[in-house]
Structures are given as C-alpha cells and as structure tokens.
Design brief:
By secondary structure, the protein is an alpha+beta fold. It has one domain. Helix content is about 25%, strand content about 35%. It has three helices and six strands. It has a six-stranded mixed sheet with strand order 1-5-6-4-3-2. Strand 3 and strand 4 form a beta hairpin. The protein is globular and about 65 Å long. It starts with a helix and ends in a 7-residue tail after the last strand. The relative contact order is 0.22.
C-alpha cells in the first residue's frame, strides 16, 4: 500500500467518526414505575452504589446512587418527558445519517451506544409530590446487572 492510500484511508475513517460524533445529544427524561409482578420489566435492582433499572419497553439503564436527586411536582411537570418511541426514532435517524440508510430488518449497526445520543434521566415517584431523579447510563443488555 502506498502512503497516499493510507493517508486517504485514515482521512475517510476520521471523517466518518467525526460525522457520528456531531450528532446532537438530546437530554431526555423517562418515567420509571416499579412493578414486581412484571418481572423482568419495570424492576429496580440495587447493588453497592449502582441502581439498575429495567423499563417496560426493554430499555435497560443504570444510575449511581450518589447522583440521585429529589424534585417536587412543580419541577417534574416542567420537564421534557419523552416516550420510548422518541428514543427509537432518534436511534433510527442516527443510523440513517451515519450509514446513509436504515439497517436491514433484524440487523443492528452498533458502532455507538444510546449514551452517545442521549443525556438520560430517569424519574421515579417516591411519594405524593416527591420524585427521584436519576442521571442514568444505558446498558446494552436487559439482564446485564
């Protein structure tokens, strides 16, 4: 291989990587409601300082207990709470922008994680007018705790 070919290859790889990094991260808030009867969904597991959350749509997240905050209903009602469909649509849009097309059915392009696309917070109701706010990271597997 010539030096010119190597240089062009490195440039193209860097361009693709930087293009993916320029995708705007959204700050999103998802609501969590624990339901023990719906195992493994809608579950919260605590191990040491980590809280593992499995949401009802198969989303799996984790949060650090030391980064938990509480908020009042007035604050909660002003947050931009999103539905799971928003997350799925954003992931598909990212795939299309990055790869120039939607992935084939059953084929996942996983050169990124949802952490690259979202700054995610989970909201859990604690008591009347009191909510926990967890700064969360996406996990790759529902059963990976």
């Amino acid at each position: 291989m010539t030096a010119k070919f190597k240089l062009i290859s490195i440039f193209l790889l860097a361009t693709c990587f930087l293009n993916a990094q320029n995708f705007e991260r959204d700050t999103i808030f998802l609501v969590f409601k624990e339901n023990k009867a719906d195992y493994p969904y809608n579950q919260k597991f605590i191990k040491n300082t980590t809280i593992y959350l499995n949401l009802n749509n198969g989303f799996a997240l984790k949060a650090n207990k030391t980064q938990t905050d509480t908020i009042e209903y007035d604050t909660f009602s002003k947050l931009n709470i999103v539905e799971p469909k928003f997350v799925e649509d954003k992931v598909l849009a990212f795939r299309e922008k990055t790869y120039g097309k939607y992935p084939a059915k059953g084929k996942a392009y996983q050169a990124y994680t949802k952490n690259d696309l979202f700054v995610t917070y989970i909201i859990e109701k604690l008591a009347h007018n009191k909510y926990a706010l967890y700064k969360a990271e996406w996990r790759e597997y529902l059963f990976g705790h």
